[in-house]
């Protein structure tokens, strides 16, 4: 066993070519065995085994600095840099991360997790190196999918000329496996294909046109050829692009057959067949990103003006694109472009529905603010996967409400259940202004209500479910379920409760809120997002600043703490943030008791 001999990159340099090949086989087996038990990014990591081994064999990390884009393909790097307990990380993700983390190792230079940043970060390291007159090699490893993001283009443009004729010792490795999460899209995807087909000899070469030296590596899964190519890179003075052709899921037949499915998995699977192991679930959950797919497909079938826009995440599956080819556009991993593109589509009179992961919306803030909201173009943004979730710190989805809810002309709503989500899609389709529908990752299907039990949606009007006095409980989105639990428990304690589904979080229903001041002493808000500067605090500010109210009204706000939670279980986060119904009830009863003294 060669893997057990590797504790640092220096140990690689003691192996010959044949031994390195055997090491790659062991690493691939180790990865598959681990991911089959605990999940992980299967395809990306299996595809870069040889390339990563070669990088650490040729270069001298951490003196030479390697920055992996996203770093969802950095498992091999972590194994080779003293972290062979990788799958202890999967069992206890709160201790370490599967992404690069600077507090874990001297070989990791940034906390990474989002896309298209590696060239910017690496060229920044190179600038700092040059300021201090050092000479180490700086390497950015970026996938062809990540190259579809706008920041990657900006960095390519900048880094091409930043070295002013000096020896750059700067390398960009384009890991071209023909996929992002799903199949690659766009002109650059086609350009890379043309370069591959010409074995890198095509005179039409965007990298050379920008000023880079260029090497094509056809066999990116051959460790010997990877080493030879990387060793040859030392001969170049100018910044260099190494275009490495690899296979996503290399060494695993089922991962190679269906790369999108095996980009990342969260449950265990059989390493021979690829069959997922059955995991018993206590409650049925509904994944919102999939719920509306069939419904929007029906809308598209009835109205050719309905256009679905994706940003590199295949949330609708392949069926929609096959059925409505002209009505589905994947812009790649480029959320900013998706929003501005949607504004243009809407301006012309079509009806765009844009799917963006909630943790990625910050990359499109300026476009939401100016291109969409300022222009009042009626696009529908479906923000999926927001809120408190079990994820790494770079994908933690609690920050979007304060980020976007203050934008003028942008109406933000959040459903309590599947049926209300469909109603919101219908409502948003009819509006002449931009709408964001905020979806959490999943919810308990027992919360779902029939359409007849849900009031019609009216702009900026809350839905008062129960009318009481003393305490008003307002629960936003899927946390309306917690509001119901709290209301029922308070009723058992003899407290008459008003229960409200606000629906809208970009504006306040001032009429409903003002009437609560007539006979309530306490308003409680519960939101699935960061509490500080969040929706609940806007309600508290309304009561604190309103001159029309005859008396003050106390507001208790419940939500997530302002932090980057890193692989913390959902139930643990609810406990940490005091979002369990029993804790909320206890605080409410204490407040009522103090008010009656």
Summarize the structure.
By secondary structure, this protein is an alpha/beta fold.
Write up what this structure looks like.
It is a single chain. This protein has 23 helices and 18 strands. The chain has 597 residues and is α/β, with parallel strands linked by helices. The strands form four sheets. Strands 8-7-9-10-12-11 form a six-stranded parallel β-sheet, with helices on both faces. Helix 11 links the parallel strand 4 and strand 5. The N and C termini lie far apart (73 Å). The model has no long low-confidence stretch (mean pLDDT 92).
Distance between the termini: 73 Å
- Low-confidence stretches are none
Helix content: 25-40%
| Most strands sheet | 6 strands, parallel
What key phrases describe this protein's structure?
597 residues; alpha/beta; six-stranded parallel β-sheet; five-stranded parallel β-sheet; 18 strands; 38% helix; 16% strand
Which helices and strands occur, and which strands form pairs?
Layout: H1 9-12, H2 17-38, H3 42-47, H4 49-58, E1 65-68, H5 75-80, H6 86-91, H7 118-131, E2 138-143, H8 150-159, E3 170-176, H9 187-197, H10 206-210, E4 213-217, H11 223-232, E5 240-245, H12 253-257, E6 285-287, H13 288-302, E7 306-310, H14 317-323, E8 328-330, H15 335-347, E9 351-357, H16 365-374, E10 380-386, H17 400-404, E11 411-413, H18 418-430, E12 435-440, E13 442-444, E14 463-466, E15 470-475, H19 480-492, E16 497-501, H20 510-519, E17 520-530, H21 535-545, E18 554-560, H22 570-576, H23 581-596
Parallel strand pairs: 1-2, 2-3, 3-5, 4-5, 7-8, 7-9, 9-10, 10-12, 11-12, 15-16, 15-17, 17-18
Antiparallel strand pairs: 6-13, 14-16
């Amino acid at each position: 066993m060669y893997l057990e001999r590797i504790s640092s990159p220096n140990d690689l340099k003691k192996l010959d070519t044949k031994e390195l090949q055997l090491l790659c086989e062991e690493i691939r087996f180790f990865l598959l065995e681990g991911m089959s038990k605990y999940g992980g990014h299967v395809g990306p990591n299996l595809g870069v085994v040889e390339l990563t081994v070669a990088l650490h064999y040729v270069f001298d990390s951490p003196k030479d600095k390697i920055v992996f884009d996203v770093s969802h393909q950095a498992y091999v790097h972590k194994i080779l840099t003293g972290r062979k307990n990788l799958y202890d990380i999967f069992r206890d993700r709160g201790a370490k991360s599967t992404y690069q983390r600077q507090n874990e190792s001297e070989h990791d230079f940034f906390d990474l997790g989002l896309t298209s940043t590696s060239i910017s970060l690496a060229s920044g390291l190179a600038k700092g190196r040059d300021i201090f007159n050092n000479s180490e090699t700086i390497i950015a490893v970026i996938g062809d999918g990540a190259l579809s993001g706008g920041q990657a283009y900006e960095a390519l443009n900048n880094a091409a000329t930043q070295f002013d004729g000096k020896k750059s010792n700067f390398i960009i490795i384009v890991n071209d496996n023909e996929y992002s999460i799903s199949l690659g899209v766009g002109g650059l995807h086609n350009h890379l294909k043309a370069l591959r087909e010409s074995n890198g000899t095509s005179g039409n070469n965007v990298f050379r046109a920008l000023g880079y030296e260029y090497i094509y590596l056809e066999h990116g899964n051959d460790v010997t050829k990877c080493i030879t190519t990387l060793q040859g890179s030392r001969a170049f003075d100018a910044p260099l692009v190494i275009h490495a052709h690899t296979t996503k899921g290399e060494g695993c037949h089922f991962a190679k057959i269906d790369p999108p499915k095996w980009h990342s998995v969260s449950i265990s699977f059989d390493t021979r067949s690829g069959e997922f192991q059955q995991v018993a679930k206590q409650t049925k959950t509904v994944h919102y990103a999939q719920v509306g797919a069939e419904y929007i497909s029906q809308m598209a079938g009835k109205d050719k003006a309905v256009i679905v826009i994706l940003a590199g995440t295949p949330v609708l599956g392949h069926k929609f694109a096959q059925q409505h080819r002209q009505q589905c556009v994947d812009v790649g991993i480029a959320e900013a472009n998706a929003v501005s593109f949607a504004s243009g589509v809407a301006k012309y009179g079509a009806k765009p529905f844009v799917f963006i992961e909630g943790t990625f919306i910050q990359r499109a803030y300026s476009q939401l603010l100016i291109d969409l909201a300022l222009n009042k173009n009626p696009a529908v943004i479906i923000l999926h996967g927001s809120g408190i979730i079990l994820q790494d710190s770079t994908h933690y989805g609690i920050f979007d409400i304060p980020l976007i809810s203050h934008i003028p002309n942008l109406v933000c709503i959040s459903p309590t259940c599947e049926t209300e989500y469909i109603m919101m899609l219908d409502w948003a389709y009819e509006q002449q202004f931009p709408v964001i529908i905020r979806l959490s990752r999943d919810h308990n299907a027992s919360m779902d209500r029939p359409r007849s039990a849900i009031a019609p949606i009216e702009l900026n009007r809350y839905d008062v479910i129960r009318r009481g006095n003393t305490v008003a409980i307002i629960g936003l989105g899927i946390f309306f379920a917690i509001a119901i639990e709290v209301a029922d428990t308070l009723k058992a304690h003899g407290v008459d409760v008003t229960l409200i589904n606000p629906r809208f979080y970009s504006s306040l229903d001032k009429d409903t809120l003002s009437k609560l001041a007539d006979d309530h002493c306490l308003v409680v808000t519960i939101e699935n997002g960061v509490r500080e500067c969040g929706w609940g605090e806007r309600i508290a500010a309304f009561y604190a600043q309103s001159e029309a109210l005859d008396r003050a009204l106390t507001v208790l706000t419940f939500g997530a703490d302002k932090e980057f939670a890193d692989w913390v279980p959902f139930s643990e986060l609810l406990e940490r943030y005091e979002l369990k119904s029993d804790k909320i009830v206890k605080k409410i009863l204490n407040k009522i008791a103090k008010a009656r003294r």
